[in-house]
Amino acid sequence: MSLPKLEIFVKDVDEAREEIFRVLPMMDRSVRIIYFDGWGGFGVSAVLRSIAKVLPSVRTAPELCFDRIIHIDCSEWKSERTMQTLIAEELKLDHSVISILDKQDEDDDFSGVDESSRDRIERVGLMINQALRGSKFMMIFLNGSDVEFDMGAFGPPFARFSDNMMIWAFKKRFLTMNHQHDEIADKLRYTHAYIHPAIIPLTSSVFQAILHEEAAAIVARSPCIVDIDPTMVADCCLYELFLHCNFHTFHWVAHASNCCMCDGIIQGDRARAISVELHGKLNWECDAPLARKFLKRMKPPFLILEDGHVYEQGPYCWISVTSMNMKLHGLQTIPAAASSFFLAFERPDCPLPLPSGLFEHSNNLGVLVLCFCAFSFAAPPFLKSSRLRFLGLDHCIDDQFGDGEDHTEWACLYSLWVLDLRYTDWNEILSEEKMDLMANIKELNIEGTRCWQYTADLQGRLPNLQRLRIIKPTYQWETSRDVGNSFMDKTRIEILDLSGNTEMEVLPTSLSKASGPRVLVLDGCDGVENIDGTGGLPSSIESFSFDGYGPAFEWTPSIELPFKHFCPPTTTETNNRDIKVSKISLAGCKQLKILFLRGLPNLLELDLSGTAIKILDFETMVVQVPGLKRLFLIGCEHLRAINFPGKSDFERNLDLELLYIDTRTGATCHRSTIEENNSSQLQVNAIIADARLVRSLHSLIYYGMNSPRDVCFDIQVTSSPVSVGPVQPEAPCSDKIGHSEEESLNQLVPAHRYSDVSSMIGDASLPMQAFPPPPMKLDRHVEIAEGSDFLESELDKYGGLGGLMDLYAESVHVHDVRVCAIVTPPFWGNKLRHFCVERCSKVDAVFQTSQDGLLELETLWVSHLLMARWICSKGYHFTDGTFRSLQHLHVRSCPSLQFVLPVWFPSFPSLKTLYIIHCSNLKHIFTLDNEHPEEIAVQGVLYSQS
């Protein structure tokens, strides 16, 4: 059955709200969930926000009287989990509910679950349901995803004939204007009705009013700017629309937040911070024909002139001209009121001269962008534009026939904040003399041309520079140029982008002396062989990118790296490039959180030691590095997960040989102490404070064990202070036992019991020093020591520590931890050969499991378990092969021990050594299991090696 649709004719937010209030009581009782589409998607935030604000005071009809209004804004979509969290917060549920969500998020971090994939929690849904049960509510919901949800699954009780209602809309964080009624309606499954206003009747003033309300919604969901005037944000939205409608092919839209600041829309001391916060929130997604049709009806504060248009005078603040010739559609002079002017000649093969007198009244210009234009570089026509803050030049050339007189008064440079040169060889403007005039410049972008020629002159100049991009030079890197000190005095620089410098072989030496860079981008720097963060990079770096496929199509003003759709595609041409980098070390970059590496076939070593990386993902962050051999993560105390590629991708795209991890606070490592693995095997060395991180290692070892290569690992789960070094097996505990204890040894076991054994080993007063030392660790070793976080729960997890010990570990050493059991159901040490446990005061049974196993166990070494009543519990079903390989059974100082092992099989075929001391309550070493063959009770247990 098709979804009922209702078109309403309203001209503003208030009318839309009131019309919805009017039609709701008239709808069928079964209509509980309603979709509102706005004016082609435009204005939905404003209308739904207005409904949420006004509805509590409406009492005109019983159908509109609700106990609760629940407003959920998920336009900045993250996940279903986040949506459920917002519902819980809106309902002001007990802190324990939020704690459940937070704990599950933390656990998902360690499981490597991508944030967008995190599902709702049933337990929290039940609590939400209980909180709303019995009340009548209206939910207002902005859905930033592409999927319609059954809201009842999140907790709110919705039923077809209940009193509860929901009005919702798809609403991403960008502004929308399109005709997609049928497309949206066709994919709705849980919605009962569809309301949309007609878009055509909107006038300019109505559009402005709706846009103001949309801007208020943007402010409301942006905590950093909640105190600013929505009118300013509305003007920024208009400016973004102005850029979107014309300059989408020139990529100047990426500068929208910059332009809003330089145009004077965003003002004050916080202008830069506000522009960064708004970046990405003002984007438009428009149906082009609809947008053009709409713009004809309204009178925007901007003018867009294209071929076929004729200039008509008006109070335009922002003007964009695209032309094939110099006539500019009748525009002879930039109006005095204009604050932004964009001009593009569509003659890339032959830039055209600027019309004479064009800048005669341009004193108010704050933003100027010229594309494919020719003018005198010695005396540019905008020379006297004293308020100019943004100057962008794309493929402009020097007009040799223009005025060649050198003017000393370059008023256009004094107030300049952003200079963006793209394929424009204008040496004069970047001369030492002219840079001295640009004391206020905050951003310098140079694309193409002789980039590094200009960089050599930066020292001591441009003191307020915050963003520097020197990308895609058309001339080779000049090794003779002295750029060594270019960055040493740039204390305010935040973004440094050197993308596309294909001939650069080493990074500038002064880079390490720059004190403030937060973003370093080296996309397409094919010639760089070695990046060394130890003393070679600023420790302040938060984001780092090296994309072998080249520079991104658009820039970003924040520390966030460009969205994936702005990254170059993986084409045959890029696959054939010679990208030389073999080592990337970001060690010591303590603030580094964001990383993107892609298409680096020769990368052998990656060192992220000491960084703040939380999740290292080999499917989204480190991609296509098939030659990677060594990975170091030492001192990464924030690390929660490493997402390795799946089995098929692992064998094809990752050839890792050495992984070294230490997540203890303050951990460091001298590289000279690490032996490089020259074999084809995978070696994993890890010291992990939080046992949950073993989940990632379990995946790696699983993939490695299922590949043709061998895998060795030494995993220590402990948070012991770094000062004591890696955890080592302690000396035999007998060193700590005094003479009086030795004297009491005779009293531990009555003389009549095991007298045959006593006669074989000699006097029971044998010194404790003779007790055998702990077994040596083998190639696949796990050690668990004091301070291990979340240890008990992880011992029970199949995809974590418990599963790793069960499936792969050959030797295990557990000491100084407070757990009740070491091996628990369903695990049973399939590969285990040596097992050592000591000083675990809470252990009741070392092995407490119902599964078959311990087929390979050779040595069982147990010491100082104060509460242990037995080593292996009774009452379980085992195979006859259990303990078949046991050669050495050593037990000491277990005062509560009643028996060691239950017996359910006829012999210990490999047992050689039985050494038990200081076990005062021990009655039987072996005792019959609850289920055992009858002949054992009659004939006893045989020891083939005795």
TrEMBL record:
Q: Which InterPro entries match?
A: At4g27190-like_LRR (IPR057135), LRR_dom_sf (IPR032675), Plant_NBS-LRR (IPR050905)
In Pfam terms, one family for this protein is LRR_RPS2
Domain named Disease resistance protein At4g27190-like leucine-rich repeats: which ranges? 871-937
Return the PANTHER family for the record. NB-ARC DOMAIN-CONTAINING PROTEIN (PTHR33463:SF27), NB-ARC DOMAIN-CONTAINING PROTEIN-RELATED (PTHR33463)
Q: What is this protein called?
A: Disease resistance protein At4g27190-like leucine-rich repeats domain-containing protein
What is the organism of origin for this protein? Triticum aestivum (Wheat)
The root-end lineage is:
Eukaryota, Viridiplantae, Streptophyta, Embryophyta, Tracheophyta
